[in-house]
Write a structure and sequence with these properties.
Elements lengths: L2 H31 L5 H33 L9 H30 L4 H29 L2
């Protein structure tokens, strides 16, 4: 596996772990317990969790990339045409998902939905777009371009 492939797998795992936990705490726990989501208090809680999730993702990314680079130092700086093509295709596919989420968030804003839902839809779109991008890149690396 190349450095880019390992990096992509690391970031996919980190995104699923960190934001799976975030959305489970913010949306899943109240729904599973049968209670309503209190969006007035929920926005304050989700802001703190949002900041914590970003920090956790950064820490995991830094430590993971250092570990990958230490284990294979000569691969860390190499990138070829295939890597750039796979990156471009992944960006394109993830961009479609992000665009759809942005349209959904604009629709919620036009319907005067609560900020809690708009913010979490935007975050969900960003995360889902990155997950689609990472899965697309894994498929392209395994299958070939």
């Amino acid at each position: 596996m190349s450095f880019q492939e390992k990096s992509n797998a690391l970031m996919l795992g980190a995104m699923v772990l960190v934001y799976g936990t975030y959305f489970m705490l913010v949306l899943g726990a109240p729904l599973l317990s049968g209670s309503e989501i209190d969006t007035s208090v929920g926005l304050l809680m989700s802001n703190g969790l949002m900041l914590a999730s970003v920090l956790a993702l950064v820490v995991i990314a830094i430590i993971g990339h250092i570990a990958i680079a230490v284990l294979a130092p000569k691969d860390a700086d190499t990138s070829d045409e295939r890597d750039r093509l796979i990156e471009m295709r992944g960006d394109q596919r993830g961009g479609f998902v992000l665009g759809a989420a942005a349209l959904g968030a604009m629709g919620l804003a036009m319907l005067a939905a609560e900020h809690f839902w708009i913010v979490n839809l935007i975050l969900g779109g960003l995360v889902l777009g990155e997950i689609v991008k990472a899965v697309s890149k894994i498929i392209d690396y395994r299958r070939g371009v």
